[in-house]
Specification:
Keywords: Acyltransferase, Lipid biosynthesis, Lipid metabolism, Phospholipid biosynthesis, Phospholipid metabolism, Transferase. By secondary structure, this protein is of the alpha/beta class. It has a single domain, classed as Glycerol-3-phosphate (1)-acyltransferase (3-Layer(aba) Sandwich), CATH 3.40.1130. Helices cover 46% and strands 15% of the residues. It contains eight helices and seven strands. A seven-stranded mixed sheet has the order 1-7-6-2-5-3-4, with helices on both faces. Helix 1 packs antiparallel against helix 2, helix 1 runs parallel beside helix 5 and helix 6 crosses helix 7. The longest helix has 26 residues. It is globular, with a radius of gyration of 18 Å. It starts with a helix and ends with a helix.
Length: 241
């Protein structure tokens, strides 16, 4: 019964947050800070409705003052609610072009200034990535990327896509990894307190002076650090129970 009530409440919340986000987007279309505001519109009420206990240790991310590429693990559609509270100012994200047609959310996503990639069209996707690189260089805006490219469903990190690292190297901006503990397999939405989640950001990984030849090592280093961080958070949460 509690699960059904929660899903009903979450459905209403999703629509209301979408409407409010649309109003923000219409009032100041494509402002790079719209994403942060909208992420909180979705995240903060959802965490209250779902009764998650979320522990956040994200000072390296929240204290960073310059453009960067933020890379995060991607477990499920709940990531919006989990990670929305730590989206920093002037940060946009990259998503599939098909998101544009999701009622309320898709239009909000577009008006928030996020980057929509047509992954079925290599030329257009490359042009969008080049534009994003220029944004990193000259517009004091950061990019948030779910670096696996798809949801891992809590089964461990999938191989990382290269695009985020190519952009960071081309723009000469640091990479900041953001990790969420493996929550998707442990949610119990039919219980009053439905789970514990940890979010942790890691120190920035500099890219200044690197070339595309350094990309494989950079990608490997980032994935290793993120996997170790996720494993450590999972172990800590296991000890609490």
């Amino acid at each position: 019964m509690l699960f059904l009530l929660r899903m009903l409440a979450m459905g209403v919340h999703f629509i209301l947050a979408g409407i409010l986000g649309l109003l923000i987007g219409i009032c100041r279309p494509f402002n790079p800070d719209n994403s942060r505001l909208c992420a909180r519109l979705y995240s903060i009420p959802a965490q209250w409705l779902l009764r998650w206990n979320v522990t956040i240790d994200a000072q390296p991310l929240l204290d960073h003052q310059r453009s960067c590429v933020i890379v995060a693990n991607h477990q499920s559609n709940y990531d919006l609610y989990v990670l929305g509270r730590v989206v920093p100012p002037r940060t946009v994200t990259i998503g599939k072009k098909s998101l544009k047609w999701v009622p309320f959310f898709g239009q909000l996503f577009w008006l928030a200034g996020n980057v929509l990639l047509d992954r079925g069209n290599a030329i257009r996707a490359k042009q969008a990535m080049l534009t994003t690189t220029e944004t990193l260089k000259h517009k004091d805006t950061s990019i948030w990327v779910f670096v696996e490219g798809t949801r891992n469903l809590g089964k461990g990190l999938l191989p990382f896509k290269k695009g985020a690292f190519q952009m960071a190297i081309a723009a000469g901006v640091p990479i900041i990894p953001v990790c969420a503990s493996t929550y998707v397999n442990h949610m119990q939405l039919n219980r009053w307190n439905s789970g514990e989640i940890m979010i942790r950001s890691l120190p920035a990984i500099p890219t200044a002076g690197l070339t595309q030849d350094d990309l494989p090592k950079l990608l490997e280093t980032c994935q290793k650090q993120m996997q170790e961080c996720i494993d450590a958070m999972d172990a800590e949460l296991t000890q609490r129970t």
